[in-house]
Structure formats: structure tokens, C-alpha cells
Input
Amino acid sequence: MKRASEPLTRRLIVPRKPFHPPVPSPYLPPESETPGYIIGEHGGVVGFGKRGFYVAAIPAQKAREMILRHHYSQSIVNNSYIHLGVYLSLIHI
Output
């Protein structure tokens, strides 16, 4: 049971479960027209695609904000482990 003197941050720190995917790391968008894996700074795969169209992992908070703003249900679930963003560019240079 929580004591009143215990700080809120101490209660909210929960270790990552082993089946959770790694935290998304920064990456560079693909520049090639050939589809392939997108590798993050941590050395792991964070997405797949080609220049102008790719899917990549995004932070959970960003995914929640997008769902609440744009999805017809405007509701989220708390048991999601991976969050993906789809990037589409209609202009190719």
C-alpha cells in the first residue's frame, strides 16, 4: 500500500518486460528507391520501406496523441507494445 509521503515518480517506475520491444531509437528515413530495413541508432530494426513510403516505430506517446486526434473512436488501449507510424510522401525529388 502506498504511503502518503512516497513520491509519485517512485510509484510510476516500472521495469520493461522482456517481451516488450526496445524503445524506438532515432533513425534516418530511407533514401533509396529499393525497399529495405531501417536501422536505428541502437543497431536494431525500427522500420521497413523505401524513399517516399515507409513504416517505422514511433514513441508510444506520439501514437496515443495521433489516435486521440485522428481516429474515429478517439480511444486507446493500454496493452499495446509496439507503435508504428506510416510515412507517405507524394513528392519525389
About this structure: The longest strand covers residues 45-50.
